[in-house]
Design brief:
heterodimer; A: mainly beta; Ubiquitin-like (UB roll); 5 strands; B: 338 residues; alpha+beta; Ubiquitin Conjugating Enzyme; disordered C terminus
């Protein structure tokens, strides 16, 4: 099935990807953000907070935004 | 304040228009001058060949070759520009933008759409970083004029400004003159706006406000409550500063003058001195000598409120008459020579 994945970490990747049916939010995170800790991110499905074991549906919109983003003075 | 659906839809439509207008008026022109130049050179070469001017024809061929190469390069560049302009810069549907705007209420509790000024605003919760209270911030996104690049501008406005004493244009370690220095958030913020993902934009800026980067602030949080000494202009932290008890000017510990009696702090202009020992002593603690009226600290006045000089003088005056007074004990025996 196809879902829209928006990764606001680093470059800000946003595109449709294919995922296996019955994939959960936690599994998708692990596949796409292997070295990251989920607690360091705001993860939303269809703009709503979600539990990690929520199963994704075709056409879902998943956004991953880091909770800590450092600004600068330059 | 819950926004009316019509207002939200109207704003979503404006945003979609804004995104669609990007690059639609880019200037595209054929290299006409280069083309006409080549045409002229071809005619001249033909005339030269017809007249048997082979050397001239050969020279014209060389010039024509160079002109054709330039013309080819201009055409290739035009082709690239056309391909770039027509590449789908995906513009989200109005419905998608509308859903993003509705989600702002759940994420931030409230948001404001101003159709007249074409702005969308959210207010964050109060920001506290490393124990320093900075207050809440309004994140205001404004649609620029159509065809502008970038299509949006945004500002971050402190609702309860708590600037450091050293720089009142800074309201947050990474916000100066209501402008955020985006740092690591620069690219994701730009992408979210280019792609019309307004919810992501506001969330990104919000997270940035709640994150402190000690490597690159306008003013470090450790210096947030620092102040300039009014005498030497050194910037000192809260722990290293005091203030004049009289005029309340801020002072560093080095510029502070302490009263010898009450230990209160005073600046150079407000401190007074004991006229006898010259120690710092505030006006409240200075007392007048009962005899000479000199202003003295408590150390220099005796129990009878006399300064040392008056005390000594008075003691001397009291002692001398005692020496001349005779008493039975002191009378010399009769006949004793004086």
């Amino acid at each position: 099935m196809k879902v829209l994945l928006i990764n606001n970490d680093g470059g800000g990747f946003a595109d449709y990807i294919e995922v296996a049916t019955e994939t959960t939010v936690a599994q998708l995170f692990e596949q796409r953000m292997a070295d990251a800790n989920a607690s360091d991110y705001l993860i939303r499905v269809n703009r709503q907070p979600c539990p990690p074991d929520q199963t994704l549906q075709d056409g879902d919109r998943i956004s991953i935004t880091p909770t800590k983003i450092e600004g600068a003075k330059y | 304040m819950k926004q009316k659906s019509k207002t939200v839809w109207r704003m979503a439509s404006l945003v979609e228009q804004q995104l669609s207008s990007r690059g639609s008026e880019s200037h595209i022109a054929l290299p006409e001058v280069g083309w006409l130049s080549c045409l002229r050179l071809i005619r001249m070469r033909q005339q030269a060949q017809e007249r048997g001017w082979l050397s001239a024809a050969s020279k014209l061929e060389r010039v024509l070759t160079s002109e054709v190469i330039q013309l080819t390069q201009q055409l290739v560049k035009l082709q690239q520009e056309l391909e770039s302009a027509t590449t789908a810069k995906s513009v989200p549907a109005i419905r998608t933008i509308y859903d993003d705007l509705l989600a702002l209420e759940e994420e931030f509790g409230d948001y404001i759409i101003d159709l007249k000024n074409k702005t969308i605003s959210v207010v964050t919760e109060s920001v506290m970083l490393e124990g320093v209270y900075l207050g809440a911030f309004e994140i205001r996104l404004e649609l620029a004029a159509l065809n502008s690049d970038p299509p949006f501008h945004y500002t971050v406005i402190a609702q309860d400004p708590q600037p450091p004493i050293t720089n009142d244009s800074v309201t947050h370690p990474h916000v100066q003159y209501d402008m955020v220095c985006e740092g690591d958030a620069r690219v994701p913020i730009r992408r979210s706006l280019e792609q019309g993902r307004l919810l992501d934009f506001f969330v990104l800026v919000n997270r940035l406000l709640f994150t402190y980067n000690p490597e690159s602030p306008y003013v470090a949080l450790s210096d947030w409550h620092s102040a300039e000494c009014s005498e030497c202009a050194d910037v000192v932290t809260t722990d290293e500063q005091t203030h004049c008890t009289n005029c309340e000017n801020r002072l560093c510990l080095q510029c502070t003058n302490s009263c010898a009696d009450c230990n209160s702090s005073f600046c150079h202009d407000c401190v007074t001195r004991c006229e006898v020992c010259r120690d710092n002593c505030c006006e409240s603690c200075l007392k007048e000598c009962g005899l000479c009226r000199s202003s003295c600290c408590s150390n220099c006045l005796d129990n009878e409120e006399r300064c040392p000089i008056c005390e000594t003088q008075e003691d001397e005056e009291t002692y001398e008459p005692d020496q001349e007074t005779t008493s039975p004990e002191t009378v010399s025996p009769a006949g004793t020579p004086l």
